[in-house]
Each structure stands twice: as structure tokens, then as C-alpha cells.
Amino acid sequence: MALFLALETSCDETAAAVFDDDLNIRANVVASQTDLHARFGGVVPEVAARAHLQRLLPVIDEALRQAQVSLRDISAIAVMNTPGLVGSLLMGVSAAKMLAVALEVPLLAVNHIEAHVYACRIAAGRDIFPAIGLVVSGGHTVLFHCRAPLDFEILGATLDDAAGEAFDKAASMLNLGFPGGPQIEKEAASGNAKAFRFPRAFLHEPRLDFSFSGLKTALLYTIRDLGYQPGSDIPPALRADLAASFQQAVIDVLVAKCGQALDQTGLTRLCVGGGVAANKALRQAMQGMCESRGAELFVPPMSLCTDNAAMAAMAVERYRLGQFAPLDLDAVPTYRPRRAAPVGVQQAS
Closest Cα partner for 22 from 44, 1, 51, 48? Predict the structure, then answer.
């Protein structure tokens, strides 16, 4: 049995995991940087990179300890090398290349965004492809046609803010703190989601793209129209209604586009991953939509939604095919996947 050590440092979580070629997760250790960035209201790239440098070796050591293995037992090193903050990515990529050379084992590159979808495969314990995949996180909102574990094609993506980024900015305007997603969800629990009618971009259009900048702006103007300043104290009941209405607008768009993707492709499986997938209201809405279409919904447990190294078990697929990364593997901050043709448009052969 092959054992893998995986590293994840794409943004503000320093993570290491140990898993085997049957996708059994032996250890999954994450050192959060939330407290470091909270006072800035968002992730500061230089702070994140320095924190990775300090935490990476202890995190690796703890993962090996929990898995009850040593470096001598590791068959391959996996690392998420794209996309993300370039300084943060370099911390993980550099460490992974060093380990691969020192241990004389293969190096495996993993796409962080696609790994969020693959987390659904890990949790399911069985093959779930082909499927529609939605990654919804702080930095990305992307809809995929997942033809196979290593064959992802983009159907749509956000044209501006990611859903998680919109939650962060909304939370800042409502004076709720960082990270915004959990804060908005908590506040929305006691609010009326129908109190304010916020815009839902592209809701009834066949295109599968997203846009949340208009929604964010609508919240800003609504707060001002109510006589308050963004970031100031707003009466609790009003703040809860604003949070609930904002959250519902995001959920409505995400659910609608996933439903359209299922209809347009004829697929009957939907995978939802990324930090925002931890939102309970979103999970419930996705479940209802899938049930109405006779489709299966796959959402990872909370521990595999936020950034972690266990979802790099996607590397097992490459390992089986002998798709090893070169030792000059680089950190690639931007994500440029293959994109499907728009609805009704034939791709050139």
C-alpha cells in the first residue's frame, strides 16, 4: 500500500495530511491563520507567507505523528501548487520538492480548486464521476463539468467577487468581523430572508456565470438608505434581516446555476465543495433542488470543506497513472482551466 504526505499552503491555512492509495485519510492537520488576519478584515499575503514558514514543519510533524508513520514510510509527496497567493504557494511547493528529493519519491501536483470537488469523492467512498462540480469559497466560485477525476471543464465562473469574498465584504459592512461567511450565517439565523429584495445576477439567463459585485453594492446602498454607515453599529434585528436577505440572494443564485447545469448536461450528480459549502442553509437548498430533479448531492463534511491537505488525495489518481510532477514545479497563482463552449455553441474539433 502506498502512503502519501500532502501539503497545502495556498492561502491562509497551513495544512498537512497523510493518506493511502485507497483514499483512507490517516491524518489531516490544519493550522489556521484566522486570528492573524482578523484585525485586517482579510488575508494579508505577506503575513500569510511568513506564518506558513513558521508553521509548516510542526504541522508536517504532527500529521506524521497522528498517522503513526515516519517519513521513511512515505511513497510520494503531494502539494497544491495552484491557484493561490504566490508567496504562500511557494512555501508548500518548496517544502514538497525538498522532501521529494530527500526521500527519493515522486512529486505530485494538485490543483487546489479541483481538489475541493474531489473532497466529495473522498467523502463518498465511491466513484461519483461524471458530475457537476461547484466550488464556492473565499477566492473562487466555479462551476465544472467533471467528466472524470482528472478531466474538469469550466461551465461558468464568477465575473467579479467570489461568493465567499462577497460574504466577507458584507460582514464588514454589517460590522460582524472576519471571516464573513460563518458570521453572516450566524446572524442570518435570526433574520427574515424576505425583508429585503437584493439582486440576483443572471438568475434567469442560460449562461452559467456568476456575479456578486452588484449584490454587495446593493447592500451598501441599502444600509445608507436606512440611515446608517457601513461598518457602524446597526440595530440587531435590522442587521439580522440584512444578513438573512443577503445570504438568501447568494444561495438562490448558486442553487439556480447548479440546477441549470444539471439540466443542460443531463447529469444527475452534483458535488459542492469549498468553504462556503459549510453553510447549512446552502446545503439544505441544494438538497431540495437535487431531490426535485432526482439528482444525487455530494457535499464533504465540514473538515473537508475549508482549506485542508486531505483533499489533495486527488493526487492518488495521478500516482496511479504515473503523472509525476517535475522537480522544477512552480507555484502558479492564477487558474486557467479549459472552458466549455457557451450553451448552444459548438466547440471546434
Answer: 1
